[in-house]
Amino acid sequence: MNERITSVKPEPAAAPAPQMTPEQRHQVRVAMSDAFVDTHIEFLWIARHLVGFDRELLKEIFYSEVAPACYGNIMTPVPPIWTGFDETWLQEEIEESLQARRDSWWRRQIDRFLNATWVWFFCKEIWAEIVEALDQAEAEQQPE
Question: Which helix (H) or strand (E) holds 56?
Answer without folding.
Answer: helix 55-61
